[in-house]
Amino acid sequence: MDWTANRAPSPLLCAALFFLLPGARPLQAALSPNATRATPLVLLTSLGWALAILLAFALWSQFRRTKTRRQSDQEEISRLGTRIKGNEKRCRDLLDSAGDAIFLINPQNGRLQEVNRAAEGLLGYSAAEIPLLPLDVIFAGRQRRRYLALVKKVIRQGYGEDGELIFRRRDGTSFIGAVHARLGRIGSEEMVHGVVRDVTERKMTEQELRRRNRDLTLVNQIAHQAASSGDLAEMLQAVLDKVVSSFDSDGGGIYLVRHAGKDLELLVHHNIDTETLASLRQLCPGQGMCGRVVVSGRPRSSVDLTQDRRLEVEAVRHAGWRGFQAIPLATHERTLGVLFIFNHSRRLFKREEIRLLLGIGKQLGTAVEGIELFDSLQWQNRLTEASNRELEHSRMQLKMNLASVEESSRSLEQLDRIKSNFLALASHELRTPLTFVLASTDLLRDTLRERLSDDEKSALDAIRQGGLRLDEIVSDLLEVARLESQSIYLARERVCLPTLLQDIRYDTLFLLQERGLTLSIVDPGEIPPLVGDHYHLKKTFCRLLENAMKFTPEGGEINILAACRTAGEIQALAPVLRPFSPAFFEKEPGSSYVQITVRDTGIGIPAAEQLRVFDKFYEIGDIASHSTSQTRFGGKGVGLGLTLVKGMVEAHGGMVWVESQGEASLEPGSAFHVLLPHPPPAEETADVAN
Known about the structure:
Elements: H1 11-20, H2 25-31, H3 39-97, E1 101-105, E2 112-115, H4 117-123, H5 135-138, H6 142-157, E3 159-168, E4 174-186, E5 189-198, H7 200-228, H8 232-246, E6 251-258, E7 263-270, H9 274-280, H10 288-296, E8 300-302, H11 314-318, E9 324-330, E10 335-342, H12 351-447, H13 454-485, E11 493-495, H14 497-515, E12 518-521, E13 530-532, H15 534-550, E14 557-566, H16 567-572, H17 574-577, H18 582-586, E15 592-600, H19 641-651, E16 655-660, E17 670-677, H20 681-689
Parallel strand pairs: 12-14
Antiparallel strand pairs: 1-2, 1-5, 3-4, 4-5, 6-7, 6-10, 8-9, 9-10, 11-13, 14-15, 15-17, 16-17
Helix pairs in contact: 2-3, 7-8, 7-12, 12-13, 13-19, 14-15, 15-19
């Protein structure tokens, strides 16, 4: 053991050493009894040497102590470094063995400075990569602001948590993390340390539970609504509003099947504009997606109606409908209606949503069936009560009705006699004076024309024109009466349609030129001849042409077209044509027809007037505008022209109707269509031979 390393040499030891050294001899001599005068000088010199030796020895001792202390410090530092590394490894092992992801966050900028192994596996990045990543890579969009707000809260309050912070992994997928963070110190450095758990599966489970709870609540509410309401429309409207709201849709509607499955009635609707409603109300079973649901009993859906070829209602496309779902309102036996909802954006309805809607549809189907059955029973009960009252009332009225029938028979006989008397009066009492007037006028014009002044000639011509017009009116009245009594004679002869139309052009050419109108007759092509009365058919088409001239302004056009039509084509138009001639569709249909159309560019006829223009003595407009002129624009007569046209065409087994958009339309004018039947070849040959 080196004793100099622990303590300094004692003064006695130093003195002993001094006297052992050669330099100590002068001092020894000076101190001896034989010392001389030079002894003090020698003594000082010896003391100097002794001090020098002592100083050197002290310095050497200090050097040895310093060296020894330095070696000891280095050994201590080495031991401390080993302990620190061991502690760091221990801390790292503790962090890596933790089941949760742990982050150390820089409170200044929110960067992730250090993570454990669980965090590496959660994010997909290594511990070396994570501190270099921008926050936008881990937290996308709004989640970055949410994360920084959490860090600020921890710095301000010392603790913060967020149960639904969305992290983005390296592979681009995301997960929901529950974050718990605290503010602390690591040495002298302030640091935010947080614990993150992947709660995606738990959140999905919670969402599924909430969804199922919401679905059960919705089904219960609908069931309660269906059970508590007695008014069908009110109940369906409340259910539809609830369904649209619950499924985040923009609108919807409910159809009910009517008339034994032949029609669909849009009973209730939500957020559908008027134009689209008008188109939807025209749907029939089997037509469109809702109609197919009625026929098949299966749901139909579309992600984007604007791109769906199954769409048949164009108004829906114009209204901006895109996502669509329709489900049947069904019972175990039949489909009672359709519930549909739509969105203005693309939407794919999930399987769970469709399953829920089908459940609602079954509930509604049962409710609708119950309400309809209850209403049917109530209605049947009311009918029974009304029938009993009616039966009692009928018994009381039976005798009175028998007397009324007898009185009516007598009245009809009297009316028939009056009608016959009127015909006799018109043919004799009116025709005879008219004959005298016209004959006298012709006589005066032929014998006195050279002696009459211009005013007298004009007056004579006016008398003649008035007489001729009155004669035409009397003839029309007689013809109407004969048509109504079915006593008019009609020839059965072959009628060539092209020749008939050219004769009409020749007869009306002067009037057309006087009015500045253009008549165009389209070549009818190969149309078989008709069988009928050539004179009356010609007069009928002349009346139609005169009517077109009266209501077409100067410079207008009149076109006459002809085409063959099959019985199937006419039957397809039955809903539109039936109001013009119900009797036509009650008889046995023919095999083929000829349709002659007189189309003008005139003022048109409002829709409300199109059936009434064929009534007797009916003219559109004020009586003040009536005129007997056949060429004046807008002139009104007695209102028998179209009546005679209708009666004569129906007497030939056909019908007549009109199409017009009215004055407000962009395509003004009217089109009068005459439909005449083609007789079978054998019948045509027999008629012509007779």
